[in-house]
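Worked example

This section walks through a single chain of length 125. The input is the sequence exactly as stored; nothing has been trimmed or padded.
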Amino acid sequence: MNTIGGTPLPVLPDIDEVAPLSTTDQPCLAEVRAVLAKHGALLRFGVTLLHEHFAVGDDEILVETIDAETRTLTSRPEKIADLGEYTSVETSWRLDDPTAMARCTSACRPAAFTESRHKQVHINR
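Given that input, the structure is written out below as tokens.
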């Protein structure tokens, strides 16, 4: 079971077990949109479907590599200890814990830290 700060995270459903977006989700999304609009954050934050494709160890994160020239996205687990020092911008958070800001689930590594200017790397925890 994955943890953040020693707190166990609930296991996310596999993508094959997740129901697609439906009209029953609309009231919830409308409220989320209203809150984002109230805070002037409609162009800053969005919503993502929480799911898993495979287990990621407590000592791993998913590293997404984007090659803009070939329009290719590759995601693979890497050991956190092997990532080294980098500058990143947090890009998603799980909100199933009151300390959501401490539960970043992805970050974007600036292009200057990648092999070329045409690649960006995102870190998913």
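What to look for: The longest helix spans residues 26-38.
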